[in-house]
Inverse folding.
């Protein structure tokens, strides 16, 4: 938008003799206005001859509306905002010129209001039988001022009532405790500043439970050779479970020592191996591989006989 102030007509003798490059007197660089409020910024202009004022917002020419106007007087240039909204916030540049030259300046308009909602989606970071940890990202727009806190609420899916978990959280993550094991929950998060609380973002439904699976039955143990007296035999099997199961090898009902001069048990994340060297007839018997985690227990058996030479 270009606004002109009266003065001698271009090309006259007075204009050429008296023209002085204009100056702007910008006392404050940032102006604030509440959402729905009114803001009038009047910037003093000094210069001789006809002055031309040009306003831009975020690099583009200002479009005047019933709520935003620019005007000029012989001694100032004016930006007038009525019923301020977020669209009026931003950086404004002012350029004033006459026949002797031009001068530019900048101001920032901040519209104060409640923030945008937190940036989603809400992430489920960790789950156990009685607590859930969630996280999110800050709002894209803070409302023109510092964010005070987040408000976190929860509800059981069997109810429509939301309960406050925290109204003072300043971090973008929280551990929600004291949940009922096996119940389904949903969480929502608001952002809040001094001008109000945003709308909420809502999490997917999550069940308060241990993230485990019952150990799968191990693969059939495999004996690598026909075993004779003083030879070596190996029994191995694949397995899996969540959390990782405890692996127990038993012989005739008693747990086998994992490391002895002749016996060795080796485990990886998915495989177990039992090795016995220089075996005797006493090393034969009923071998049981047992897997244990919070989901339960599963076992498989293998009988082995040591043959005489």
């Amino acid at each position: 938008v270009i606004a002109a102030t009266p003065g001698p007509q271009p090309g006259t003798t007075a204009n050429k003799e008296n023209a002085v490059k204009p100056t702007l007197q910008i006392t404050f660089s940032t102006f604030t206005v509440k959402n729905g409020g009114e803001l009038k910024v009047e910037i003093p202009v000094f210069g001789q001859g006809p002055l031309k004022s040009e306003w831009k917002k975020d690099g583009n020419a200002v479009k005047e509306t019933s709520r935003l106007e620019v005007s000029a007087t012989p001694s100032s240039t004016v930006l007038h905002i009525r019923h301020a909204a977020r669209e009026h916030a931003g950086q404004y540049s002012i350029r004033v010129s006459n026949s002797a030259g031009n001068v530019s300046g900048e101001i920032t308009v901040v519209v104060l209001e409640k923030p945008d909602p937190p940036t989603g989606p809400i992430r489920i970071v960790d789950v156990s039988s009685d607590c859930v940890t969630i996280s999110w990202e800050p709002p894209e727009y803070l409302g023109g001022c510092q964010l005070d806190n987040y408000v976190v609420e929860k509800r059981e899916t069997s109810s429509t009532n939301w309960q406050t978990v925290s109204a003072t959280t300043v971090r973008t993550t929280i551990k929600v405790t004291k949940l009922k094991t096996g119940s389904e929950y949903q969480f929502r998060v608001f952002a809040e500043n001094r001008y109000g609380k945003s709308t909420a973002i809502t999490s997917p439904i999550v069940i308060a439970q241990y993230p485990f699976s019952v150990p799968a039955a191990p693969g059939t143990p495999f004996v690598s050779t026909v075993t004779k007296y003083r030879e070596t035999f190996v029994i191995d099997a694949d397995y899996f479970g969540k959390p990782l199961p405890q692996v127990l090898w038993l012989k005739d009902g008693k747990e086998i020592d994992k490391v002895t001069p002749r016996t060795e048990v080796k485990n990886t994340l998915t495989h177990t191996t039992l090795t016995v060297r220089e075996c005797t007839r006493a090393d034969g018997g009923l071998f049981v591989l047992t897997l244990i985690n919070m989901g339960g227990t599963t076992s498989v058996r293998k009988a082995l006989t040591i043959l005489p030479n």
In short: The two ends are 106 Å apart (CA to CA). The chain has three domains: 2-112, 119-207, 222-304. Confidence is low (pLDDT under 50) at residues 222-226.
